[in-house]
Amino acid sequence: MRRSVIPGFGLGLGITALYLGVIVLLPLCALILKASDLGATQLWAILSSPRTLAAIRLTVTMALAATIFNAIYGLLLAWVLARYQFPGKRLLDALVDVPFALPTAVAGLALTALFSKTGWFGGPLDALGLQVVYTPLGIAIAMAFTSIPFVVRTVQPVIEDLGSDVEEASRSLGASDLQILSKIIFPSIFPALLAGASLAFARSLGEFGAVIFIAGNQPMKTEIVALLAFIRLEEYDYPAAAAIATVMLAMAFAMLIVTNTVQAWQLRYLGRGNA
Amino acid sequence: MTPKPQRPAQPGWMVTPVGAGPVARFVVLSVVAVVTLFILVAPLAVILTSAFAQGVGVFLRNLGDPGTLHAMWLTTITALIAVPVNILFGLAAAWTVTKFEFPGRTLLIALIELPYSISPIVAGVAYLFVYGSQGLFGPLLEQLGIKVMFALPGIVLASMFVTAPYVARELIPLMQVQGTDEEEAAVTLGAGGFATFLRVTLPNIRWAVLYGAILCNARVLGEFGAVSVVSGNVRGQTTTLPLQIELLYQDYNVAGAFAAATTLTAVAVVTILLKMLLERLAGDEHPSL
């Protein structure tokens, strides 16, 4: 350790370690401990039950759908904010933060009202024979809403920092817009897009408040993993709740490794671009 | 409206950049405007119109519902405890990982960010296995007559878990850029640790601290998943405002649910406005950031 003249290392580290230990690590250890009580066979029985599998499959598929939507919409939104000047730009920039600032329960309530049969969108969609509320589509919409800012806020600064020199050079060499987009701009923002999308996907996997309002929560059909863990608790089936929560924790760790790897790649990429 | 100052690194365009042509611009802007209207603006609009659908009188009566008032009080208390504690933690954590080099520093930063990637439901379930009757300390706490789960302490603890990274996350990148020179100079000139922090460090990071605290506050007020597990959702006793919204909705009292939701929506709007203000203030002081 490099010696520093600045005081407060012991105190700072003490507070940090104590807080993280008590608030974050202790509960996670207790959860893993509880799940490890189960033993492999019992754990497997809980996790391989049709209802658990259906919930996991539904959650992952809908999170993926929401992420793909957000990758496209978020990229366009970031592009517009970074490269265009237009009236209302500050307002649009502020709107991007709505999903982070608005409580998920409020978002869930609002989306359900919008897409119910009597709602602004639900009515016309129902006339077209499309039901959103109480279907997997509703789950995807709720997940998409809550994770929009991740893509925008990761991609936006990268587009802002794109230098004009390479683009101008390729233009003067006769490249078309499409060639510049696909060969120069997209490769430069792709790492950031991937990083933002993986953050959005991770968030969607664990989303609860916004989803349970609109999902209808029917077992095997519109039940997400987080809700299943919650239901098992309410049934006092603590081992099953522990097992499902541990799987969610494992998924979160896996996504953490993925997002960190992608972000490290993005940073290396940025560093190379600036050098 | 003041345009964003152009970064000095970016030279002026000699040719038309991609997408700046009138047709491309119109198409992209329209698509973004329409989608934004549908998925970001409409939810906000529907909250307000639904809350006031039956008039201001009904809205006020719904807002004055004893259950909703109690939920507001409980939510406020939770924020009043969780936010200051998180500010202290954020300051201590950021100070430790940015002013010193030590083995395990990267791991510590990863741990600070960990709650960000964990589902609030997992956090709630995990807390139950510490303080609940099936948990590690549950039986002991029961003997001592201390109630943590299904009571205020549990709600506060779960809220702290989900918001632990909020202040630290704002401070760490900023303090990393600022380095340690100013503090080292202050200490060398004979200032004590506390004076250095108060007079040198804090003025440099005050907007970031405030910004982190505002985001943390918004999240504490709105936390649903973790709190719904640990609160037990006892009507009129352990329902925070987001839980109260769900209870009212389940009772088919949609107008009441929307009335309660307007208060949290107002907090969200104020949060965003303050964020814009702080970004401008911080931007004026640190044009490079």
Short overview:
Chain A is an all-alpha fold and 275 residues long. Chain A is 79% helix and 0% strand. Helix content of chain B is 75%, strand content 0%.
Poorly predicted residue ranges of chain A: none
Order of helices and strands of chain A: HHHHHHHHHHHHH
Structural class, from secondary structure content of chain A?
Answer: mainly alpha
Strand content of chain B: under 5%
Note the run of SSEs of chain B as H and E: HHHHHHHHHHHHH
Figure out the total of helices of chain A. 13
Multimerization state:
heterodimer
The largest β sheet of chain B comes out as:
none
Range of strand content of chain A: under 5%
The number of helical elements of chain B comes to: 13
Can you describe this structure?
The complex is a heterodimer of chains A (275) and B (289). Chain A is globular, with a radius of gyration of 23 Å. Chain A has 275 residues and is an all-alpha fold. Chain A has helices spanning 9-36, 40-47, 50-83, 89-95, 98-101, 104-115, 122-127, 136-161, 165-172, 177-206, 209-215, 225-234, 238-274. The longest helix of chain A has 37 residues, at 238-274. Helices cover 79% and strands 0% of the residues of chain A. The two termini of chain A are 30 Å apart. Chain B is mainly α and 289 residues long. In chain B, α2 packs across α13, α3 (66-99) packs parallel to α8 and α10 packs antiparallel against α13 (254-285). Chain B is globular and about 60 Å long. The relative contact order of chain B is 0.13. At the A-B interface, α1, α3, α4, α5 and α6 of A face α1, α3, α4, α5 and α7 of B.
